[in-house]
Structure formats: C-alpha cells, structure tokens
Automatic annotation (TrEMBL):
Subcellular location: Cytoplasm; Nucleus
Gene Ontology cellular component annotations, sorted alphabetically: cytoplasm; nucleus
Name this protein carries in UniProt: SET nuclear proto-onco
Family according to the record: Belongs to the nucleosome assembly protein (NAP) family.
C-alpha cells in the first residue's frame, strides 16, 4: 500500500507495559553458592547484577515514555489551530479530498468507480487524537448532500483499552434506496468473477463496517499517519495519464527529428555521388584532350 513501516496497533498506541521484575516477583534465583567453582560463581554473580541493571534500564524507559507522551500532548494541542486553518483553505478547492485519495497508491487500490463518485461529495476530513493520545483516535468524513446516503458525517474510532486490546466502532451508514455501495460491490464481484480473473476492489465504504482486526487497520493508519499530516503532497501528484501523453509526444518529436536527420544524410550522400560523377566526367574530357 510504499510509506514507512507502521505498527499493527493504532498509531501512538503502545502495548501494555511489561511489569518490571522486583525481588519478590523474580523467579527464585539461587545466590552464588560458596561451593561452586570460581568461574561458575562469577557468572552467577554477573547474571544477578545484569538483572539489577536491566531493571534500572526498564525504569528509565518507562519514565521516558511518560515524558514523550507529555511532549506529544503539548504539541498536538499547538497544531490544532493550524489544522483548522488548513481545513478552511482546503474547503475552497473543489474535489480536494477525492483527488488526494485517488492519488494515494494505497487508498486508490481500495476505490471503485462508484466510490470515487460518492467521494466527490466529501468536503472535509479530520483526524482527532484522544487526549492521552496512546488510547486511540477518530477520523471524521464530512459530506455534502448526495444521492448515496443520508449522513452528513461518517466517523470511525479506534481504541486501545487498559489491557492493550484494540477495538473500533463507526457510524452506521444510512444508505438511500438502491444506493448501498457495499452490497452493489459484492454483487458486482460475484458476476465479474465468472467472467474475468481480476475482481473489482471491495467498496471503500465497507471499511466503516469492518471491525474484525482493529489492531491492523491499514487504511486508518494510512489516513492518520501519512495523508493527514500533509494531504497537499498527494493532491499535487501529477496525473500519470498526462505524463504518459507528454512522453508519447516527446517520443514522436524525437522520431520526427531522427527522420529529418536521415533525410538530410541521404541528401548529402546523393550530392556527394553527383560531385564524384562530375569529377569523373571532367577527368574523361581532359584525357580526350590530351589524346588529341
């Protein structure tokens, strides 16, 4: 779908902390017995010291995670006014979000033709991280009045509970009569599978009903970590068809230039042959004159 490696858990969500072993919770460790050989005794003492040092490292890691979380929360709040300003400016550009999604290699692979038509009514996208950040986030999609569904806003939330189990929930889409793209996609696939090997992708909107593996929701992660930070970079991606068209025109121009060069070379060769014939004629006339 490539971009940076993403965690299978919702971004910023961390696995539950592994409890640090204390002397009471450690497995029973035999102190170095005075009867052990010297080398074994030294190794046993070294293992005990390593365990103590590792506990200190774990303690510092926990402390660092808490400090990093505070910094993330601080800057997340500072970014909000800029996100709001950016959304206001994006609203002035028609079809900004559908163009951004179509230009993104991973998201475009999930879009069928009717999905693109529906996404032309998408006016705004917002990603909101929950206050403590690591517990989850929400993605909101704002739509104008459209012929597909009644909802003005479609949302999907991702949560990580205290035990570290991921979950998700989303808005129920209120489809208009005969416009349910998720069902139409399924029917289209069943028919297409009989006629051709390559099936159309499932509807983009099935993502709102899929909660089977919230901890590995690639689309949610892509929108949050790749598109949302800078959607403009995907909106401005040049149209590949236009690039191919320009490339073909350049090839045609090159072929025409090569053809002209070939014609010029052939003309030069013909002129050279004519000059040689003239020289031979003049030499023949001189020879005849000498004979006379």
């Amino acid at each position: 779908m490539a971009p940076k490696h993403q965690s299978s858990l919702p971004p910023q969500a961390k696995k539950p902390k592994k409890p640090r072993r204390t002397p009471a919770s450690r497995p029973e460790e035999k102190s170095a017995s005075p009867n052990l050989p010297k080398e074994e005794k030294e190794q046993q003492e070294a293992i005990e010291h390593i365990d103590e040092v590792q506990n200190e490292i774990d303690r510092l890691n926990e402390q660092a995670s808490e400090e990093i979380l505070k910094v993330e929360q601080k800057y997340n709040k500072l970014r909000q006014p800029f996100f709001q300003k950016r959304s206001e400016l994006i609203a002035k550009i028609p079809n900004f979000w559908v163009t951004t999604f179509v230009n993104h290699p991973q998201v475009s692979a999930l879009l069928g033709e009717e999905d693109e038509e529906a996404l032309h009514y998408l006016t705004r996208v917002e990603v909101t991280e929950f206050e403590d950040i690591k517990s989850g986030y929400r993605i909101d999609f704002y739509f104008d009045e459209n012929p597909y569904f009644e909802n003005k806003v479609l949302s999907k939330e991702f949560h990580l509970n205290e035990s570290g189990d991921p979950s998700s929930k989303s808005t129920e889409i209120k489809w208009k009569s005969g416009k349910d793209l998720t069902k139409r996609s399924s029917q289209t696939q069943n028919k297409a599978s009989r006629k051709r090997q390559h099936e159309e992708p499932e509807s983009f909107f099935t993502w709102f009903t899929d909660h089977s593996d919230a901890g590995a929701d690639e689309l949610g992660e892509v929108i949050k970590d790749d598109i949302w930070p800078n959607p403009l970079q995907y909106y401005l991606v040049p149209d590949m068809d236009d690039e191919e068209g320009e490339g073909e025109e350049e090839d045609d121009d090159d072929e025409e230039e090569e053809g002209l060069e070939d014609i010029d070379e052939e003309g030069d060769e013909d002129e050279g042959e004519e000059d040689e014939d003239d020289d031979e004629g003049e030499e023949g006339e001189e020879d005849e004159g000498e004979d006379d």
